[in-house]
Amino acid sequence: MEQQDRSAVLYAVAYGPGVGLKVIVSYLRMKRAARKAEKRFYHELVRSGLPAPEARSLALEYGSAVSVRELVSGLSDIPSMGRQ
């Protein structure tokens, strides 16, 4: 392994956990904001006259846009991340 390759590996090992932690914290903030938006959306739908079960169904669909499964499945749309 060349010196440049070693330094790249060391750089990745040194900064990887910090970047991972930042990604996790950002995701949790985004998820919390989505839950709040889902609740507001539900209450607005009920207030405008939509029956509660239908409003709940729509609100859950609205709030489920931010999920790990949805984000990971969206990676397959990126050419470099999809299966070959």
Features:
84 residues, mainly alpha, 0% strand
What does this structure look like?
- There is one protein chain.
- The chain is mostly helical and 84 residues long.
- It has one domain (3-75).
- Helix content is 77%, strand content 0%.
- It has 3 helices and no strands.
- The longest helix has 45 residues, at 3-47.
- The radius of gyration is 20 Å and the shape is elongated.
- The two termini are 28 Å apart.
- The model has no long low-confidence stretch (mean pLDDT 85).
The multimeric state of the shown protein is single chain
Distance between the termini: 28 Å
Coarse structural class: mainly alpha
Written as H for each helix and E for each strand, in order along the chain, the element string is HHH
> In percent, how much strand structure appears in the residues?
under 5%
Count of helical regions: 3
Q: How many discrete domains?
A: 1
Helix content: over 70%
C-alpha Rg (nearest Å):
20 Å
Poorly predicted regions are none
Number of strands: 0
The major beta sheet can be summarized as: none
- Global outline: elongated
Q: Whole-number average pLDDT?
A: 85
